[in-house]
Amino acid sequence: MSPTLRIPLLSFLLVIASTLSAQRIFRDQDPVPPDFGKAPGTLLLIRSDQKGVNKALPAVFAEYYKGPFKLIDQADLALPEYADRDAYRYAFRTVTKFVGATGSGESRMPATYNYTFNVLDLKTDVPNGLTFDGAAYKGLMKAYAKKLEEVRAGGQ
Known about the structure:
Blueprint: H1 3-28, E1 43-46, H2 51-64, E2 69-72, E3 90-99, E4 112-121, E5 126-133, H3 137-155
Parallel strand pairs: 1-2, 1-3
Antiparallel strand pairs: 3-4, 4-5
Helix pairs in contact: 1-3, 2-3
């Protein structure tokens, strides 16, 4: 296979894998709080410690989530302007954890990141989310934003 065909094919396969992973993960885990979308409010998007995630976050939500949202740092949650838990009830967070390589030879597993996306209900302090390993965070973030929009739009 020529190099010019290999890159688009690999990209296509990653998109398919992300979509299938999202469908499986959303079936196996409950990523949306039960009261999400039942009242108007602004979803807070909490910046991560990963530059790639932070770059994708506002772009993905601008495209797939049609409700109001605001990008903030974790420390901003303590500011008085975000104290109103009716206006700012939910916060979307990404937690990353580096997972080192394991094994050797053909059974060697490469280093990767473990990602946890969740929506924290700031009134109850209860998170709903999903956890996965691998580099498909942007595809799964898109699927999560779409799911949040589906629930938000259906609840209002």
